[in-house]
Amino acid sequence: MKKTWWKESVVYQIYPKSFKDSNGDGIGDIRGIIEKLDYLKELGVNVLWISPMLESPQDDNGYDISDYRKIYKDYGTMEDYETLLAEAHKRGIKILMDLVVNHTSDEHSWFIESRKSKDNPYRDYYIWRNPVNGKEPNNWGGVFGGSAWEYDAQTDMYYLHLFSKKQPDLNWENEKVRREVYDMMNFWCEKGIDGFRMDVISMISKDQAFPDGETHGGLYGDFGPYSVHGPRVHEYLQEMNREVLSKYDVMTVGETSGVTIEEAQKYAGDDREELNMVFQFEHVEIGGGDYGKWTTERYDFKEFKKIMIKWQEELAGKAWNSLFLGNHDQPRSVSRFGNDNPAYRDISAKMLATCIHMMQGTPYVYQGEELGMTNIYFDKLEDYRDIESLHYFTELTESGRLTPEYMMKCLMLRSRDNARTPMQWDTSAGAGFTTGEPWIKVNPNYQQINAADQLKDPDSVFHYYQKLIRLRKEMDIIVYGEFEALYRDHDQIFAYTRKLGAEKLLTVCNFSAQEAEMELPETFAEGAQCLITNMGRKMFDRKIVLNPYEAFVLYKKD
After folding, report:
1. How high is the pLDDT of residue 176?
2. Which residues, in sequence order, are CB contacts of 2 under 8 Å at separation 6+?
3. Is the pTM of this model over 0.85?
4. Nearest partner of 369 among 312, 323, 410, 408, judged by Cα
5. Residue 255 among the catalytic residues
6. Catalytic one among 199, 274, 388, 550?
7. Which of 434, 298, 313, 453 is nearest to 372 (CA)?
8. Burial of 179 by CB count in 10 Å (0-12 exposed, 13-18 middle, 19+ buried)?
9. What is the pLDDT of residues 459-503, one digit of tens each?
10. Active-site hit among 21, 64, 150, 255
11. What is the pLDDT of residue 539?
């Protein structure tokens, strides 16, 4: 297998608004990130993916960009960004930019021009359609609820927005749009960034017939079959690779929801010249109900395990995996897949990290995950800030589909704001995130969960992550070893081996709050070394009774 730096990296995702505020205005900023680079270096991560920091009205927290070459004023200046790049590079840390090019903000100069008249030179930068029978051009619903079309009285036409109405979709069929995007990407590469995480990149090509979608009993039609992995998406990405990516030593990861194994091989296949890897979301989309993710059902462990194994096995030797449990759009991983009850929180956070970091692929750590940060469980609607949570609360309660009480429970478990509460740095007021009033409330458990305490405690979740990351850097087998699943049908245990030449690894994780019995494979029954364990186990007999949420990794060289 070809060795590359991005296969050997561990990526840390920063949500800048919530990471560290350096000037007391309650909003995280670039200077705050610079202040914490030594902390990130100590953790051992070597790539930072930073959610968008460009000029934006912040309708969707920066995923609505109004100027691709300007830093958002509340985050700082271009000089600050250049300092961040230089300081990160000094510490051996690379920076991935969040590339948002499926849509812009409706306040972008291109869209302001586009909506002026039907013959404006920028008209065709966006997707405009005439009304059909006095209504929307088709029945598609937007990701954040409501119709995916917005009527614009100025020219008596509708524009497409797969997300909020303040996020009009760019028309990638227009070659000028593509040129603008590639020029902008080259601009940032020349500044010295190290790659791109590409927001909803699988949606840039649409079926030009714009047919109605299936409603599946919902209020709107599903745009998925006509806008996700659309007819020209691979052509566009190969062009982007030729025009930009191939000219630099950069890392790329595409956000590709709904991606199948076959599609993933097209996006990230070794011989495809598109992207290095993609994010697939199958494992975080399980347990959805009649209204998508808005349910209080807990995830199904056996289904989760089956999906994780499938991606390991079927991409092996064909494309590279990205490994994650949390990000800015997901609830906190320990609350969702582990157990955030204080009795089990640290142990289960370490177990989840063990399971992910010992697989083949590039691991992603979402800010605070290395501390075991949990969901916030807001019980008042006014505490929420997330556009998606607020839209769906209104849509599902006003249509009588869910009661307000039930919908509040869904938000507590599934809202994106769970991941967006401020980073918990220490026990001072504002959790060390800000000296001012934070833009969203701090989780009250910052007194128990914070970086300052964990840095001092050798048994902390932080130090456990640090060790996992160090092991990956030291041992090729963790990066490049072949994966083989064990105990496929067990309803508590996730176990697998990795093999590279004469070396073998065994990872064992108990995903439940009950004890679990297992037998070690013969190879590891004698003379194996324990690389890491979350409960200090010393004895590894042939038959083992695992404690709740216990995890360990054994290593053997023939």
Report:
1. 98
2. 270
3. yes
4. 323
5. yes
6. 199
7. 453
8. exposed
9. 999 999 999 999 999 999 999 999 999 999 999 999 999 999 999
10. 255
11. 92
